[in-house]
């Protein structure tokens, strides 16, 4: 997180942004809280002040991903009011662009595959957005 904005952002936001980036690059199970706090320029006490556990951090990351997708969809609805086919086409085009730029895939789909435990708190978020 070397851009000035991220370095000046609030600790919670910085932790969330850093975790999203690291989970996307390395997988949820491939990243520990030590690595997240180091990359975010903070400490575990601060992380746990904002997030009860790594699992809660994962849930918040997925909620942020879902909110971003919802905002994108809202843009397509505004650009193509009442034209569901054009909205869908715009969505597919955007997905294609994102996948071409970054072959790591969709954070939500990746989490669904990686988090196989039925009782993992993130499964609830994944199921809600299915």
Elements, N to C (H/E): HHHHHHHH
The gross shape turns out to be elongated
Residue runs with pLDDT of under 50 for 5 or more positions: 1-6
- The span between the termini is 31 Å
How many DSSP H or I helices?
8
Total individual domains: 1
- What is the residue-mean pLDDT, rounded to a whole number? 91
CATH superfamily: Tetracycline Repressor, domain 2
CATH fold name = Tetracycline Repressor, domain 2
Percent helix range: over 70%
Structural class of the secondary elements?
A: mainly alpha
Measured on Cα atoms, how large is the radius of gyration? 16 Å
Strand content is under 5%
Largest sheet: none
Reported CATH architecture: Orthogonal Bundle
Number of strands: 0
Classified by CATH, the class is Mainly Alpha
Keyphrases for this structure?
130 residues; mainly alpha; 74% helix
SSE diagram, text form:
Blueprint (H helix, E strand, L loop, with lengths): L3 H5 L2 H16 L6 H8 L3 H7 L3 H26 L4 H18 L5 H8 L6 H8 L2
Helix pairs in contact: 2-3, 2-5, 5-6, 5-8
Quick synopsis:
The protein has 130 residues and is mainly α.
Protein model, in words:
The chain has one domain: Tetracycline Repressor, domain 2, CATH 1.10.357.10. The chain contains eight helices and no strands. It has helices at residues 4-8, 11-26, 33-40, 44-50, 54-79, 84-101, 107-114, 121-128.
